[in-house]
Amino acid sequence: MAIKSFHPPQRILMGPGPSDVSPRVLAAMARPTIGHLDPVFVTMMDEMKALLKYAFKTENELTMPVSAPGSAGMETCFVNLVEPGDKVIVCQNGVFGGRMKENVERCGGIAVMVQDDWGRAVDPQKLEDALKANPDARIVAFVHAETSTGALSDAKTLVEIAHQHNCLAIVDAVTSLGGSPLKVDEWMIDAIYSGTQKCLSCTPGLSPVSFSTRALEKIKSRKSPVQSWFMDLNLVMGYWGGAAKRAYHHTAPINSLYGLHEALVILQEEGLENSWARHQKNHLALRAGLEAMGLNFVVPVKDRLPQLNAISIPDGVDEVAVRNILLNDYQLEIGAGLGAMAGKVWRIGLMGHASNPRNILVCLAALDDALGRAKAPVKRGVAVDAAQKVLAG
Amino acid sequence: MAIKSFHPPQRILMGPGPSDVSPRVLAAMARPTIGHLDPVFVTMMDEMKALLKYAFKTENELTMPVSAPGSAGMETCFVNLVEPGDKVIVCQNGVFGGRMKENVERCGGIAVMVQDDWGRAVDPQKLEDALKANPDARIVAFVHAETSTGALSDAKTLVEIAHQHNCLAIVDAVTSLGGSPLKVDEWMIDAIYSGTQKCLSCTPGLSPVSFSTRALEKIKSRKSPVQSWFMDLNLVMGYWGGAAKRAYHHTAPINSLYGLHEALVILQEEGLENSWARHQKNHLALRAGLEAMGLNFVVPVKDRLPQLNAISIPDGVDEVAVRNILLNDYQLEIGAGLGAMAGKVWRIGLMGHASNPRNILVCLAALDDALGRAKAPVKRGVAVDAAQKVLAG
Known about the structure:
Aspartate Aminotransferase, domain 1; 2 domains; PyrdxlP-dep_Trfase_major (chains A, B); 41% helix; seven-stranded mixed sheet; Aminotrans_V_PyrdxlP_BS (chains A, B); homodimer; 15% strand; 13 strands
């Protein structure tokens, strides 16, 4: 055995995440490690909480990054809020609603599924009907921005309906945070989780979460202990909470937190609303190019998520061959389909640092070549120009 | 709000972890992020598994890093192996045995505690007695190297006893991996977890684990699903397993894995046995200095863990003031006591990259000054010389 240091290539990350990471974030990851109880580190934690509150648009005291990827952020919400026997309405319109169901059931809860077509927003009327049919439901859970399809749901309305029926609302914001309008306090979301490797353009591995006072009350009044020791917020709060003395719970992922701190500083410098606008504008430019080629979006305009563009693979095209050309000849990663959409769609991400004009033009030019070589029935040589017109507009 | 980039100080980390991180590992953390399904990344994952097998001295196929800190590695072992109603013998001789009990109970298991004095190795006879009294026990769990006290237990013997009574053995190797002899296959350990921020000298945030074939059989034959979706090895193996096509489970913490890969390459370059010997030799030098000052170790010589030196705080000394002098005047972090030992001991780590002569001398010189200013009843001006004699020997 003689394994050597690993030197990854420099890719352009336009898949469903991770997205391109800013050199500033990478530089922050490499700063000297200090202790997780060092007073200087505790100051950084306080700043981190303030920055996350800004990104989530919330004053929730319990706002912090879980020390593990978004899937663990999801599980943190469910294990803390769902008690055995609790009925949870889960709206599913893609892969991640299915994962919510798994979480509910592993907590001993009863998941009532409300199914919508993949590639469409969650239908508020169906949620309303489900809640009327299940007056004993305690929680509603849905995905704000479905990474598997690129559909954006109306979180504000869905939370309102949940509250009208005395339910708490758990929201998956993995792909929306930082990229699309998201207002935790104004929309009265009770529990929300996200990831770092999408529109925040940090490296993967952490999961920002936030919990309302109402959610905290439910956690504090649980009859049974939280089944996960690692994710038990009653314990985690001893470290991340506002107490003068932070109690050791687990060793925080110090350098990953440096990276997230820097990513959030960058977001603050740009301004949250400016970031939302940038994601939307760049989406329109990419869309113009893709549509000029004759490619079709999976999601109708009104439900479309700007940072995740799912397009149908043209008939007869070897989709793996196309992605391999992009990766090997252009160092460009786009995403394959996931779950029921595997083999049917490509997912082109325009997230965070990756959402910029240069990436759009490179992606369209590379796709033009790759689709040509794959003999796809598309219009060649028009995509870049169409995108540039929008970018200039 | 105008939060700026965070620039941590350059500390010397001689607490219970994190330990000093090699500049090579920090540089690796800052390399370009690539996708978690990128073929180049999958090659790195295969190398990572080979390197971890080397560090654990195992051929276990299921050897990989959990995407979260050591506490989640512990929980991964318990949630996968403990089913509701399972009786688990937990040997406790410090803080982390207590955490194991929490894990067992949150899995619906029955924890039978075998208590040993804090600062002493686990007594094999007590385990034997507990197993005779509990013939229905299914699992034995213990901590190989107790980070809260610096006691090293005889893992080989304890596992043998567990097997004689038809139990699987779960071993906490958070502080031993890379620093003290640890032979997973030869000792027939069934499930083991560690951390990255101790003797591997990587940043915190990942937890290497390994499972024997016997452990895997128990996981596959479970009657109830694993209560954690994130930690369910049946699912995680789809990504980390040897299959030609890696299935997406969660987004791997890419850059943290770069860091661990580099830390393991460094371990391989040094040689595992050489690393064990270095930790032992440096411990003896530090010990000579501390004892020359008149400071006393908590753990008797035969049970002593070289990489975690717990010493009793001299009477009448303001222990917080001493640690503050070390941190503020010398940029040196040592650890406070934890749990029942809070306020009674200091914990001086000599782990991984931090286990070197320079750190020993700086630490002893700084302690000499700080204890002098704290008017501690110690012998001044002798510690450095005593350590140097051992280092030269």
